[in-house]
Structures are given as structure tokens and as C-alpha cells.
């Protein structure tokens, strides 16, 4: 158990404090001032950029509007620096990625400086505040004292709660998957479509493993394709709860067993499926762990352990985007080298171009890499 972080501020001449909540794991800000409906957007933006947090005491909806105003200022294009006689070199794809991540991190820090008070029952004691108890309970769990949290984080919790309620439509399943807060939502469906159309190897109708199941979407799809027994693994408690919930919603509990395991369960299977995080970079928050995999740890772990958990003529299906290759974060030769060193061979590969909006957004700093991206289902077998 980690000690509860505490935030401190001065209000009406009195020293005050409260528990600090942050799903991103950020420490409480050191400088806190009181803000209300009289605080202007320019003043708030200046304070936020200086690292001074503002604890809101005004109307909730006015705070929401203020946050939107801060976002507009943060997103406003910066004035171009005076032209130098020496032309500045265009950043490489890798440099562009790191600059983009740096800008995202700075933006998040700035917008997280607007804080809200919460009662111990997760109610926000401000005028015109919505009832956010259910959304906060799903993310924070039960609390025993009032606390302070970022308004930006609260809006993320509310959005996740709405996704959890209505679910994400999965055409390949003809059903909806309900993601929990902090569990990767299957909004990019191309990798699901690859699993839906790939030919099942011999024996796969009897048993398959789904490694890092997340919402359980691939385990559910394999069950729908007729696999009699699917063992779905994960280490994250939220993912385990989310996958179990979705499997029960889809009435697939008789076929799918959700278990806590670091990558592989015990034994071997004729089919082992894994959709690891696609980009080898350090996540800035726990919620980004489904996207960013430092030093390709999960990818390399899956490849290295596959032969020991695959039946002799079985197949390992690795679902992977090549975005990291276009960004210069990983090479194809590295991937093929890990596969070879693990005693595996490539049996074949299915490919699909992504159709998400960013792939066509020419204003995106990473557009060139996204436009060239391909998502693949690598069919791996034992040498």
C-alpha cells in the first residue's frame, strides 16, 4: 500500500489540505491558489504555464468553459521564431515523434492545473455540478475522505464511464464490447478483422490462448468462431474484471476462462494470439500502457516464450502495427531477429491498412508515418 498523497493550500488565511487523487500518478502541485468565476482565462493560462494550480470555488459549468479556453490557448500555433541565416533541418521521424510526445505531455500538465474539490462520496460540491459519483467510483473506488483532483482527469473519467455504458460496436462480432476505465478500448478494428478472417490452424477449435486480453474482445471473437476453450490472460485487475464482464455479457463464459498470468498460462495450445502495445516508448501515465511498451518488453516476452507454449504444429498470431518502424523506433530486422532467436519461423502474414482519421490528417505531426502504417497478423510457428 502506498501512502495517500496530500495537497496543501491557503484559503481565507487558513492552511488547508486534502487527499490528492491522480490516475496518471502525478504528484500534487506544490503551488495552489483559489480560483472562481471572476478568474479570467488569460490569468488562468498564465498561472497554469507557471505550474500554479487553481482550486475552483465557482460554478462547475464555468470551470468547464475555462478549461476549454485553456485548451484553445494551449493549442494556438506558436509564433514562428525569427528566421535564421542557417536553415533549420527538418526533424527526422524519430525526432518528430519525441517532439510530439513532449508537446502532448506539456499540454497535459498545463490543462491539469485546474482542480476540483470532491466530497468523500465523490460528489463535487459546486453549483451546477453533474452527478459524477458512478464515474469516479469506477476509477477511484471507495474513498473515506474528501479529496482534490484535476478537472481534466474528471472529464476523462466521465467519458470512459459513457463508453463503458454504451459500449463499442465491433462489426466482426456483431456485438458491443464495454471497456472499463484504464483498459484499452478496441476502437481501431482492423486488427480484430484480421483475427476474424485468418484461417484457424489445425486443432485450434479445441484450445486457444489470448495473451494480454484487455477487454476480452479477441477471446470473445475466437469463441464466436467456434473455439471450444479459450484461456485469456492479463495482469491488470481492471482488464481482468473488464474481460470477465464482457465475456459474461456475450454469454461466452462456458468457452472462455479469464485468468491472471504474466503473459502465458500453463501448458501449450495450437493457437496463441497476442496484440501487444505497438509503440516502444515510455508511457506518461498508467492508461497509456496499452499503447506504449518500453523497450518492446511485452513484444519480446511474447516472442521469446511462444515456442514453450505452442503445440508443435501450432501457430502464434502476433498482431502488430509497423508504425514504430516508420518512426525509427524499431526496425523490421530487429523483429525478424527476435523471431529467429526464439526458434520460430514466419508461416505467413495478413496485412491491412488502418482507416482511423489520423491516417488521413495531413496536419498531424506524424502524418507521414501514419499514412504508411500497415497492421499485420504475423503467423508464427516453431522451426
Automatic annotation (TrEMBL):
<feature type="region of interest" description="Disordered">
    <location>
        <begin position="1"/>
        <end position="29"/>
    </location>
</feature>
<dbReference type="GO" id="GO:0003676">
    <property type="term" value="F:nucleic acid binding"/>
</dbReference>
<feature type="compositionally biased region" description="Basic residues">
    <location>
        <begin position="79"/>
        <end position="88"/>
    </location>
</feature>
<dbReference type="Pfam" id="PF06325">
    <property type="entry name" value="PrmA"/>
</dbReference>
<dbReference type="InterPro" id="IPR029063">
    <property type="entry name" value="SAM-dependent_MTases_sf"/>
</dbReference>
<keyword id="KW-0489">Methyltransferase</keyword>
<dbReference type="GO" id="GO:0032259">
    <property type="term" value="P:methylation"/>
</dbReference>
<dbReference type="GO" id="GO:0036009">
    <property type="term" value="F:protein-glutamine N-methyltransferase activity"/>
</dbReference>
<protein>
    <submittedName>
        <fullName>Protein-N(5)-glutamine methyltransferase PrmC, methylates polypeptide chain release factors RF1 and RF2</fullName>
    </submittedName>
</protein>
<dbReference type="InterPro" id="IPR050320">
    <property type="entry name" value="N5-glutamine_MTase"/>
</dbReference>
<dbReference type="InterPro" id="IPR002052">
    <property type="entry name" value="DNA_methylase_N6_adenine_CS"/>
</dbReference>
<keyword id="KW-0808">Transferase</keyword>
<feature type="region of interest" description="Disordered">
    <location>
        <begin position="74"/>
        <end position="96"/>
    </location>
</feature>
